[in-house]
Specification:
The protein is mostly helical. It is built from 17 helices and no strands.
Length: 463
């Protein structure tokens, strides 16, 4: 069930009616309603995977309780290892087994041997990378004594399965979200107002900008075009598309949560204004980058183990982040690319206008070449696109292509510049009621104009 589909609108209005009728009576009723609705929401993808979601939740709920009561450090360590093994084991089975099996078989064939490793008929559960990391993070936090365990099952099930952010984040921390399920929060008009504006903003990004740029990207990346300008503009289009698609989802998720009385973390903060690779990763997919920072990079030693080991830690962390995104060599190369660039520019801190401008330019080159690696369908396509990046032949449809990109790119630029100037991620919220109504009305008109009743998938659903 997609946020940008008619079926979700029907689901959401039914849920809201029940939530405001019964969910405000007490915390238990509210949480139970959220759990039931979240499992119904997830079952629309494939009802069989609701059992996987439930199993993952029950395991970490039990481990959290055992960790809280266990005093022997060695036993506590074994318990958290069980959580890591279960969560990452499930993730490997569904997401990576066939990739590694196929890669090893190709290696055997190249060595003159026969295929040995089997291929499994596995369907990837939507959102599995998100909720397994959220559940695993809880177990690690209890182990580290950064939070206490939840001794009531329903709030914990609600924490793992909360439908606004279940399938594409943000990956919430237990220290932020669980207390909100345990406390009685008054749903204010201010929260509803902010939530509505965030939902409209997110839908506008997805339906109007991202979905109209998607055909430009697919047109080029769906084939091995060797025209440099087209590769360049398709990569720019993808950079805008993936930002509006993913940050649009996060805005909708945060908006729905606000209406329900919850605050989710900010997942994007103007990443394309970054002047260093490090700053970009502080602004892009913040919930994931901070997760890897806290649970991988810092435990490896962070930047306190010498320059060479710091570079090693950055590369390992970003390599794992690349693998998290999907089972493909392009994601591995994308992770390695960002790890190497973070290492190379780790000490670069622009101080004035000139160095900031240069830093921004270099950072955008790094980021957008990374998007080329991310979007390519094969190693062969990466090589072809990289080698032909400077070719300057122009096809006869180039002008129409460029016009479409400039049109929706201009809308994106204005939206980003408005946010930058106002320092507000949803600047329309601070307008007076008349101007806000006008802006929202224009967004709704364009959303309806480009609306697809079945909805188009969000890019990060595949991860």
């Amino acid at each position: 069930m997609l946020f940008n589909s008619t079926s979700f609108l029907i689901f959401f209005f039914i849920f809201i009616g029940l939530y405001f009728t019964y969910g405000r009576r007490n915390i238990t009723t509210r949480n139970l309603l959220i759990v039931i609705s979240s499992y119904i929401f997830y079952s629309f993808w494939d009802w069989r995977f609701t059992f996987l979601l439930l199993s993952s939740s029950l395991i970490d709920f039990k481990i959290g309780c055992l960790l809280q009561n266990e005093k022997v450090q060695s036993k506590r360590k074994n318990l958290v290892i069980v959580s890591v093994f279960c969560n990452l084991g499930v993730l490997f089975l569904f997401k990576y087994f066939n990739f590694f099996s196929e890669s090893l078989n190709e290696l055997l064939i190249n060595l003159g041997a026969s295929k040995f490793f089997p291929q499994a008929k596995i369907i990837l559960p939507v959102g599995i990378s998100f909720y397994t990391f959220q559940s695993l993070g809880y177990a690690i936090d209890v182990y580290r004594k950064k939070t206490t365990c939840v001794d009531k099952l329903v709030p914990f099930l609600a924490y793992v399965s909360f439908f606004p952010q279940l399938v594409a984040g943000p990956i919430e921390r237990s220290t932020n979200l669980i207390p909100q399920f345990l406390s009685s929060r008054k749903i204010s008009n201010e929260f509803i107002y902010i939530g509505f504006n965030l939902i409209i903003l997110g839908l506008f990004k997805k339906v109007v900008i991202a979905d109209n740029l998607a055909p430009l990207v697919d047109m080029v990346y769906g084939q091995n075009i060797n025209t440099g300008p087209i590769i360049l503009f398709a990569t720019i289009a993808f950079g805008i598309q993936i930002y509006c698609d993913f940050s649009g989802y996060s805005d909708i998720a945060r908006g729905i949560a606000y209406i329900l009385g919850f605050k989710l973390m900010i997942n994007f903060n103007l990443p394309y204004f970054s002047t260093t690779p490090k700053e970009f990763w502080r602004r892009w997919h913040i919930s994931l980058s901070s997760w890897f920072r806290d649970y991988v990079y810092i435990p490896l030693g962070g930047n306190k183990t010498g320059k060479s080991k710091t570079m090693r830690n950055l590369v390992i962390t970003m390599l794992l982040a690349g693998i998290w995104h999907g089972a493909g060599w392009n994601f591995i190369l994308w992770g390695l690319w960002h790890g190497l660039m973070l290492s190379l520019f780790s000490n670069f801190e622009p101080k004035n206008f000139v160095t900031k401008t240069l830093g921004w330019f270099l950072t955008m080159i790094i980021v957008f070449y990374g998007w080329l690696l991310f979007r390519c369908n094969s190693i062969e396509q990466i090589v072809n696109f990289t080698l032909n990046f400077g070719a300057n032949n122009f096809p006869n449809w180039f002008n129409d292509y460029l016009f479409t990109l400039l049109l929706f790119g201009l809308v994106f630029f204005i939206l980003q510049l408005w946010k930058k100037i106002t320092s507000e991620l949803c600047p329309a919220i601070n307008l007076n009621i008349f101007l806000n109504s006008l802006v929202v009305a224009i967004k709704i008109y364009l959303i309806v104009l480009f609306w697809d009743s079945n909805g188009s998938h969000f890019i990060y659903f595949q991860f």
